[in-house]
Amino acid sequence: MNRHDVVVVGAGMAGLTATAALAAAGRDVLCLEARERVGGRLLSTAALDLGATWFWDGERRVAELVARLGIATFEQHLAGDTLVQDATGIRRLHGNLLDAPARRFTPGADALAQALAAELPTDVLRPATPVTAIHPGATGGLDIRTPDSVLHAEHVVLAVPPALALARIDFGATELPAELTRLARTTPVWMGAVAKVVARYPTAFWRETGLAGAAFSRTGPLQELHDMSGPGGRPAALFGFAPARAVGPGFEQAVIAQLTQLYGAAAAEPETLQVQDWSSERWTSPPAAHRLADHSLFGHPLYQRPALDGRLHWASTETADQYAGHIEGALAAGERAAHAVLSPHTDEANSCSR
To answer: Do the bridges between strand 150-158 and strand 2-9 make them parallel or antiparallel, or are there none, so unpaired?
Structure first.
């Protein structure tokens, strides 16, 4: 059996953060990622983000990380008016009423994950390796099963959404406390029931007419829209969010029709139209993710306590007690899990035992 001090499940920003901290502390750590790529919900194409997009003032972990990694950032475009679309038509409201000052990643958000993964020691990261089961070991620690192997670790860091973990990983019928199981199964997955649509254009033509690119819609299919153009407006793009259940036959045509209604004839022929339906991502969302709607469960106190005799640690952005759903929350959750592994006696009194 392959033995390690720690196995981290998931190579999104939380998992990579925890893995990097544990490796730096000299622990024998292995990071297992179901996908063939790192980043999780950080996914970019030609510097346009199909997942996480922004970070904001006060999110010091992201700011410090991009500075250390040397990743260029720029300010989100804010100037211009807002559009509101409802059953009565389209109204133009003065100023940008939707966007707040934020920063973007010049090469795309997933550059953050790729740069962090590149710093890990050789053979620490194992892609295309989904975890199928986690059970207490016969002599202590935890056994971790994948389709091709059984590993053993003293600690496991779960850096995937809790509801996804409960849907995809067998923990045994009675190993996890019932209250924790109920919590994990009902905690929403950030972006899990959302489709993100990015329309790329030759120029940011909406700016020329004094529009910010920001829009609300009560008729859809996109419910809110933003300017996603790069520095100086290049590449030029708009993006919007739609309920994942709206995606289906005719969806792209409906999106283009809506963009044309909002922004005029120039919006009718995007160079590219990309639809990222996060609900269909097997390694992001559990079945029926749209039914999970109680966002007050994010950062729940039970997620701050290790389970299974202090050996199982929660580390996705949904479990962060601050900035949950943000990249900052993922970094904070990864740091917390790594600290709990490295300082187990600190958390022993608060551990949630099986």
So the answer is: parallel
Residue 70 β-bridge partners: none
So what's the pLDDT on residue 172?
Answer: 87
Phi, psi of 178, deg, nearest 5: -60, -40
Give the torsion through C-alpha atoms of 244, 246, 247, 251, to 10 deg. Answer: -150
Nearest Cα to Cα of residue 325 among 225, 191, 166 = 191
User: Dihedral of CA 112/114/120/124: which sign?
Assistant: positive
- What is the Cα Rg of the chain in Å? 21
Burial class (CB in 10 A: 0-12, 13-18, 19+), 127: middle
Give 43's strand partners: none
Q: For 116-128, how does the pLDDT look when each residue is reduced to its tens digit (9 = 90+)? A: 999 999 999 999 9
Locate 188 and state its tokens: 């929403």
Domains and CATH numbers, the chain: 2-43+112-190+284-350 (3.50.50.60), 76-102+193-280 (3.90.660.10)
27-43 pLDDT per residue, tens: 999 999 999 999 999 99
Give the single-character DSSP code of 320.
Answer: -
Sign of the C-alpha dihedral computed for residues 13, 19, 24 and 30 taken in this order: negative
Element housing 208 (H / E): helix 205-208
User: What pLDDT is stored for residue 260 in this prediction?
Assistant: 98
Task: Return the residue matching tokens 């990309």.
Answer: 274
Type of residue numbered 291: R
Does residue 345 surpass a pLDDT of 70? no
